[in-house]
């Protein structure tokens, strides 16, 4: 079982970077032997690491503070950090365990290099504003987009049939009935009632009262049917 780091892959430094940003690295030793560790970086002038070397007892852990020095100007939000860290560990066995920490690493690097284990870490700049923008823009794929919903044409229900055609039909029937009534009144005024009714009866075989009743009934039935549709 090897040494464990937390975080295990990326050291994250919170913006703004014009002030010091700090990340805590935890070195865990799950083994049965004490271990020595050392932290290196590709940008030693930018970072302050405390402690940058030490000993972790078996089953224990050690916190390491990694501090990014303030920048003169805030870098762009899309700028990626290219800095890297390297954590080296070695078990304190045999004659190594009796060495002082200052002597240990020079000795190991020259005579027991095969005992060294290395873990690489990358660095990243973190921005809360950028995270909020991503959360607001991204949607779940299964949710239909508003523009897709706008293109869907709902199927009209029976009670949602357009009423304009029904109203037009009713107005047309009323107009025809009024015209028919006016024609009857005009004919009635030209001749006596008896002669007029006799003329209608002879020509159509139907008496005037019956014609009027049929017309009124037709209008009433049509009106009721159209009323139900509306």
Automatic annotation (TrEMBL):
Record carries keyword Membrane = yes
- Coiled-coil spans are 163-190
> Where does it reside?
Membrane
Ranges where the MSP domain occurs: 2-126
Q: How does it sit in the membrane?
A: Single-pass type IV membrane protein
Q: Which UniProt keywords apply?
A: Coiled coil, Membrane, Transmembrane, Transmembrane helix
| Gene Ontology biological process | endoplasmic reticulum membrane organization; endoplasmic reticulum-plasma membrane tethering
Matching PROSITE patterns: MSP (PS50202)
A GO term for molecular function? FFAT motif binding
PANTHER family reported in the protein's UniProt record: AT11025P-RELATED, VESICLE-ASSOCIATED MEMBRANE PROTEIN-ASSOCIATED PROTEIN
Q: Which family does it belong to?
A: Belongs to the VAMP-associated protein (VAP) (TC 9.B.17) family.
Q: Which protein are we looking at? A: PapD-like protein
